[in-house]
């Protein structure tokens, strides 16, 4: 029962505060470059690490130049303050010569005031590591048929069973070299996303951990209630044999598969925690980060074991490497990484994303730009501009990229020590999002898109933040079907205390085991009841004391549109949200186009707020817009100042006070500007 109690606490405790030391430099504005491919791997692949094309004839010369003092000085002059370099890729022994190159690069970085990050890959190279460490064969991820799971299209790389005890100890040896020999300031763990079915791993060691997890989580009686029997010695992780495309499953009803999803998320988070704790034990000033990717439209809890709320909190940052580069496409869909940035903010972490300007095929989009991606990072991130390229890209850096980096660094006091301000919270409950890849994702993504484009200040929250709802005017439950009794009570308590609710779909109709309740658990709050055939009730509004609730059957997608397009019934949803919130939002725009977005932040010391405004439609300059901002109690506004990397100088903005709000006009917008409100 001990693990069950711990897991329950994880789902009910208030929002995370940072639970470990972070060095001072981490909140002074991070701008980094990276190149994590050692020369040996570039030669083995026959590909250029920068372009992904055929290996150039001068590959060795370019590699040496990446590690030169000339390049380090040039990067520093451009505003870069962190270089993430190759360290561990093909094995400690086979990488030894190039580890020395990284060590020398680190000495140059420290000489010139830059920080060194080291890359640690999580795959096993058959041609080197298995040659040097035959015991590593025990750590390979095997299918139930005994075949090794390969990494992508590279037959010489195998996926690894991360939490295998032997592999964990091996990684600790790798970490010790990085910290004690290379003197790293930062460790980046790559390749940590688990494979989707059917390549998920099925070995005696994995099955041992799975059964141990179940035994720790449940009592004998609970196991019997869960599976129909209490003796789980015969239980194994799911078999995908004979199942066509198991990754395409939309709804997960098999209790074994449900528990396997939970176990995989726990197991990966446990692995990361072990290594992160070990790193901080050796040197608490080393920053830790991993790459599980960000929040997308895919159910990566089921597919990839990526439960961000349990995983990324053990480090200071995580990567998002998706195709959601900031842009408005030809069909009018607005793509962004705002969901991932907001997840990072909620979990007191930082997001790493690419803001590169040359030689990166993944971001060569006609209607996106590095200026827009940098603006998005400045507005939404926890004081990190992101990955601005490979080391040698600095010799091709365009003037406007330098201008944006210079603006970020010189105005960093506006980004450091801030928190995001929000009136609305969007819940992504683990069991709802893990066990159904359809309605919870459709409704939640569409509702978030509405908040983004209509410029409503909001946070993305998880089960762990349900104990801290009082600070929000409204809570959105987008088809959050599978809710535990504890979560139901927390939501009910919030509503009775005066909170507003926006609810869609079959929210609360299922238990956390996805068993159907006789009626909606929130029927008393919503004023609706289950209908035959699970038909959705009609929309309605109701109040209880000071609390207000609006139920809508669903946000309606545009025909042929994506979840990055506003729903057809946006006006109805927005009206319902305003009803539930009861009072105006902390920031209100008048007449601003829907291809602009905003973020509102507040200084941790209470000295002011910053309103960020971004234009996602390149080449379409936006006319001036009027804004009103709420002023916190016991505060008065001394001045409002406009800053922008697209303007030569700052300028004061006239404002007038209207009760507990101020009104002012933002001038025309090119890409990005921010209004600094000083109390």
Percent helix, as a range, is: 25-40%
Oligomer: single chain
Range of strand content = 15-25%
Q: State Rg.
A: 25 Å
Sheet of most strands: 8 strands, parallel
Mean pLDDT over the residues: 94
CA-CA gap between termini: 51 Å
Q: Return residue spans where pLDDT drops below 50 for at least 5 consecutive residues.
A: 1-17
Structural class designation? alpha/beta
Instruction: Name the strands of the widest sheet in spatial order.
Output: 12-9-8-7-3-2-1-13
Number of strands: 29
Shape: globular
Question: What is this structure's SSE topology?
Answer:
Elements: H1 2-12, E1 30-35, H2 39-45, H3 59-66, H4 69-78, E2 82-88, H5 96-111, E3 115-120, E4 123-125, H6 129-132, E5 150-151, E6 154-159, H7 165-181, E7 186-189, H8 204-217, H9 220-227, H10 255-282, E8 287-290, H11 300-304, H12 308-311, E9 317-319, E10 327-328, E11 334-335, H13 338-346, E12 350-352, H14 370-380, E13 384-387, H15 399-410, E14 418-420, E15 424-427, H16 430-435, H17 439-453, E16 458-461, E17 474-478, H18 485-496, E18 500-504, H19 523-526, E19 540-544, E20 547-552, H20 570-581, E21 587-590, E22 596-603, E23 608-615, E24 625-630, E25 639-643, E26 651-652, E27 655-658, E28 661-666, E29 672-678
Parallel strand pairs: 1-2, 1-13, 2-3, 3-7, 7-8, 8-9, 9-12, 15-16, 15-17, 17-18, 18-20
Antiparallel strand pairs: 4-6, 5-6, 10-11, 14-22, 19-20, 21-24, 22-23, 23-29, 24-28, 25-26, 25-29, 27-28
Helix pairs in contact: 7-10, 8-10, 14-15
Walkthrough of the structure:
The protein has 679 residues and is an alpha/beta fold. The chain is built from 20 helices and 29 strands. The chain has an 8-stranded parallel sheet. The chain has a 6-stranded antiparallel sheet with strand order 14-22-23-29-25-26, with helices on one face. Strands 16-15-17-18-20-19 form a 6-stranded mixed sheet. The two termini are 51 Å apart.
